[in-house]
């Protein structure tokens, strides 16, 4: 309607500009009418002009309706687009809510897994601690088993080899007879039994309890080159009364049997004599805490090249037997006295052997004095 009013105002202005002019609504059947200022008011109120005005108004309204129709279409399209976008947004919102719910559930599951992991980690630590304790326990048992095996080996050897004899003598001396030397040597070389033990013996009635361990194919750096001989301190019933650590010099003698027998004492036997003094700081010579201490002694006692000579040439293995004498020196005997002591006739009574040793010591002292 504002547009109609504007057109009418334009019509009035046009009429005022000239006394005679064509009606502005000529296109609407007023084109043949000539207007002047005096007939302007009359023409505007005429039926012809009013009909033309109605037609003009209808034309304008139809034009405006077309514009509104296009706007409605655009609005409908926008509305449709908005509806579609709203539906899409709703779907996205629902999906977001679903994902959020899933995230919450995932957090719950992760928390539960963390708790399970903590529990499993604690159980794993407990298992590791238990395994460590069990390993230490197994190691202790293994050590005890090794010691027991040594004891069993020693005792089995004593029972199985009744011909193995040890004879105690004066001043802490003993003689160990070993038979079946070839077989024992083969066992050592094949590692079936690398060492043999002597029967246990005492240095006196209530003295130290000891035994000898012999490697017929050597031990350690002497393996395959020398016989190795060691002293082993055993746990004895009188250890609480004895002096520790064990510090007395130990001497070994491998007897030259053939010279003693064939020359009937006319030639000095070639006994193999060696000695060592215990290391008082070594655990081998402390008071035993178990059945036996670690063996210690002389790794390179006698070369195997000499020990394995043929039977006719061998001075030490006769009739598949050897004799080893051991002296525990409690009184500080001079090393120069050892050959004399080891050459004494072991058949003599103990008191006679002791007397002969004392006389020899005095003789040498007097000789040195003169």
Automatic annotation (TrEMBL):
GO biological process, one term: regulation of canonical NF-kappaB signal transduction
Protein keywords: Apoptosis, Coiled coil, Isopeptide bond, Ubl conjugation
GO molecular function: tumor necrosis factor receptor binding; zinc ion binding
Any one GO cellular component localisation term in the record: cytoplasmic side of plasma membrane
Top-rank taxon: Eukaryota
Domain MATH residues, every copy: 171-328
SUPFAM superfamilies referenced in this protein's UniProt entry, alphabetically: TRAF domain-like
Protein name per Swiss-Prot or TrEMBL: MATH domain-containing protein
């Amino acid at each position: 309607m504002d547009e109609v009013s504007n057109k009418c105002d334009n019509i009035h202005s046009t009429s005022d500009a000239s006394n005679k002019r064509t009606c502005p609504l000529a296109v609407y059947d007023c084109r043949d009418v000539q207007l002047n200022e005096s007939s302007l008011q009359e023409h505007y109120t005429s039926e012809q002009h009013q009909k033309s005005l109605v037609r003009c108004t209808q034309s304008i309204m139809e034009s405006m309706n077309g514009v509104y129709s296009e706007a409605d279409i655009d609005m409908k399209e926008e509305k449709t687009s908005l509806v579609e976008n709203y539906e899409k947004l709703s779907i996205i919102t629902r999906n977001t809510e679903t994902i959020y719910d899933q995230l919450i559930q995932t957090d719950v599951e992760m928390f539960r897994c963390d708790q399970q992991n903590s529990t499993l980690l604690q159980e794993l630590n407990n298992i590791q601690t238990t395994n460590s304790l069990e390993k230490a326990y197994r190691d202790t048992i293994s050590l005890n088993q090794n010691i027991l095996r040594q004891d069993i080996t020693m005792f089995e050897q004593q029972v199985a080899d009744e011909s193995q004899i040890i004879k105690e003598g004066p001043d802490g001396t003993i003689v160990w007879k070993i038979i079946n030397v070839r077989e024992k040597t083969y066992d050592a070389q094949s590692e079936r039994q690398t060492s043999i033990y002597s029967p246990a013996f005492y240095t006196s009635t209530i003295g130290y309890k000891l035994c000898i361990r012999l490697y017929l194919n050597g031990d350690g750096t002497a393996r395959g080159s020398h016989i190795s001989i060691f002293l082993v301190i055993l746990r004895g019933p009188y250890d609480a009364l004895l002096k520790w650590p064990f510090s007395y010099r130990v001497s070994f003698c491998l007897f030259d049997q053939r010279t003693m027998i064939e020359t009937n004492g006319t030639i000095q036997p070639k006994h193999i004599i060696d000695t060592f003094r215990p290391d008082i700081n070594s655990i081998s010579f402390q008071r035993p805490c178990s059945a036996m201490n670690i063996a210690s002694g002389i790794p390179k006692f006698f070369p195997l090249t000499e020990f394995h000579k043929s039977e006719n040439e061998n001075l030490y293995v006769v009739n598949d037997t050897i004799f080893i004498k051991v002296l525990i020196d409690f009184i500080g005997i001079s090393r120069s006295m050892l050959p004399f002591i080891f050459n004494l006739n072991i058949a003599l009574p103990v008191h006679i052997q002791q007397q002969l040793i004392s006389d020899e010591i005095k003789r040498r002292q007097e000789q040195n004095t003169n």
